[in-house]
Amino acid sequence: METFAFITIILLASILQTSTGFGFSILATPFLLLLFKPTEAIQINLLLSLIISGALIVKIRKDIDRAIIKRFVVGSVVGLPIGIMIFLLVDLNKLKLGIGLLILLLTIMLIFKLRMKQSKIRDLVVGGLSGSLTTSIGMPGPPLLLYFSGTDTQKEKLRGTTLAFYLFIYLVSLIIQVIFAGTSKTVWISSMMAFPLVLIGLYLGQVLFKWINQHTFRIFTYIILLFTGIYMLLESF
């Protein structure tokens, strides 16, 4: 039963990540936490997300906004060490409660047409938030997703820019996690077992991306954000 659950989680999360540029950690991490210890679940998520981003980077490089990426990276340099401190010192249930409430509030505001302008300062702040969430709970996606949705970013640019940023953020976060929280054989063996599933997900996700229009993409975004917020609230209790 656990093996079937693992296969299903990785396959669906890989398809989602490939087709939208986000979603692997948002979908996979909650369920991986049911099968593995928190440190193992987060590190498996980081490893597999890194593989997906690396596999797609050449194909999506034309869609990357390099100026935004640079500011995201600068902001994340501040957020990454803050995140690992939170992971090691703070009650993660309280953290999830706060993040879950914030995600739900902002998603509802987006659904009711809250929009914002993209700016250099906001890029830095979003990068910092994403970095801190990556090393603390292994989920860099929500700040990026909320920001890009609020600025009405086209799906190609969203996917390309997000995946390129993930390539940096996941690699650095994995190194920080291993150094400060340690690792285990389970992480690496499970990731190797999941590799063929990720390849299948990469192919199916690419097919799905071609069929998704901008309106459907936005609906996908809201559903994923609502799912994330509700899940984090339930987990915190």
UniProtKB/TrEMBL annotation:
The chain crosses the membrane at residues 42-60, 72-89, 95-112, 163-181, 187-205, 217-234. The keyword Transmembrane helix applies. InterPro entries: TM_pro_TauE-like, TSUP. Keywords: Cell membrane, Membrane, Transmembrane, Transmembrane helix, Transport. It holds the Pfam family TauE. It is a multi-pass membrane protein. Its main location: membrane. It is found in: Cell membrane. This is Probable membrane transporter protein. Belongs to the 4-toluene sulfonate uptake permease (TSUP) (TC 2.A.102) family. GO terms for cellular component: plasma membrane. It comes from Fredinandcohnia quinoae.
